[in-house]
Amino acid sequence: MKKCLWLVVITVLLFLLAGSCYYDTEEALYPTLNSGCDTTGVTFSGKISSMLANNCLSCHSNTTATGAGNGIRLENYADVKSRATDIAGSIKHAGAYSPMPKNGGKLNGCLINQFDIWIRTGMPEN
Length: 126
Ligand code: HEC
Hints:
Blueprint: H1 2-20, H2 26-29, H3 44-55, H4 57-60, H5 65-68, H6 77-82, H7 84-91, H8 109-120
Helix pairs in contact: 3-8, 7-8
The structure holds heme C.
Residues 55-56, 58-60, 68-70, 72, 74, 83, 86-87, 90-91, 97-98, 100-104, 107 line the site of heme C.
C-alpha cells in the first residue's frame, strides 16, 4: 500500500514538472508580429514611404496612378494621409476593401503593424 502511494506521488510530481516546462512567448507564437519589427522608429519619411515605394508605387505613384492605380496616388504625404483608412483596410485585406498590393501576396505583419502605429500616433509628417 505504501509503495502504491509513493508511485502516485511521484507520478503527480512528474506531471507537475513537465507542465511547468511549457513556455512560449508572443514572439514564438506569432513570429511575424513583433520579432525584429521596429515599432518605435516609425516615421513617414522612413518606414511608411519605403513600404509604399517597395510595394505600391509601381501602380500608385504620381506618374503610374492614372494608368495602373485607378487614379489613386500614394506618393505624397497629403495623399497618403487622406487615404490612410482605406490603405489600412486594403493591406489587411479587410471587409469590402480591395486587397492590396493588387495581385501580390499580403504584406508581412510588421509592415501592417507599422502603418497602424503611424495612424495611431496621428499620422505625423516626419
Ligand atoms: C499592380 C498594381 C497595384 C499595386 C502594386 C497596388 N495597387 Fe492599390 N490599387 C490598384 C488598382 C487597379 C486599384 C483599383 C481597385 C482594384 O482594381 O482593385 C487599387 C486600389 C487601391 C485602393 C482603394 C481600395 C478600396 O477598396 O477603396 C487603395 C487604398 C490601394 N489601392 C492601396 C494600395 C497599397 C497601400 C498598395 C501597396 C501595399 C497597393 N495599393 C498596391 C493597383 C495596385
